[in-house]
Amino acid sequence: MSYSVGQVAGFAGVTVRTLHHYDDIGLLAPSERSHAGHRRYSDADLDRLQQILFYRELGFPLDEVAALLDDPDADPRAHLRRQHELLTARIEKLRKMAAAVEQAMEARKMGIDLTPEERFEVFGDKDPEQYAEEAEQRWGGTEAYAESQRRAASYTKEDWKRMQAEVADWGERYDVLMASGEPPTGERAMDMAEEHRQHICSWFYECPYDIHQGLAEMYVADERFKAYYDSMRPGLAEHLREAIVANAARHGA
């Protein structure tokens, strides 16, 4: 079985130009050529491309990727183990960064005063003001944003902790729900989506079903939100998006 350069580009989510470049530099030379001279890739070529893309995603330059993959003493299983370790570390870092971004945006814009020690503990070396400004630019002119600001102005630090505890409890229960195999269109999943909407209504602003669906799309499209929800359980952002849509349809939206 062999595949054309266009098929491989589609499989891997890269451009044909990228595959041509990999061929030109000797990083990924297709195993076969058609009678017309067109590139044809084997399953072994696809395995190598997967390894290349793993390392590229982790930030390795092409010359280092080539050196790693062409090492005659390298064990393919060792490559996978190393990539798994690196990816796991990166996921954990992204999870922490996403949580810091969430807290930074909300803490700065909700009038919560943090001590320097608390600021360092929550935000590390990240500047939350960067994301607070972005939030205001994106939603500052909306009624929902204004309502959120009005409500949050009266919140104490204990209120904030209680809200976070509710989110953590919801996330744990959604994790269990997904582990049980509940589909996004299932009754329990839709109930969890409705609880998510009610949480927004209770703490921030009235969130009708059309706005809730818009938020659901953002949870998947914006990498920071996606990382935040997927830190609760891989795939949760996509599952929640579908559950929110199903819940809205259930209520006639």
TrEMBL record:
Coiled coil (UniProt feature): 77-104
A Pfam family assignment: MerR_1
Keywords attached to this entry: Activator, Coiled coil, DNA-binding, Transcription, Transcription regulation
Domain of life where this protein originates: Bacteria
Positions of the HTH merR-type domain: 1-71
Entry keyword Signal: no
SMART domains the record matches: HTH_MERR (SM00422)
Keyword field contains Transcription regulation: yes
Record PANTHER family: HTH-TYPE TRANSCRIPTIONAL ACTIVATOR MTA, REDOX-CYCLING DRUG-SENSING TRANSCRIPTIONAL ACTIVATOR SOXR
UniProt name for this protein: MerR family transcriptional regulator
Native organism: Streptomyces broussonetiae
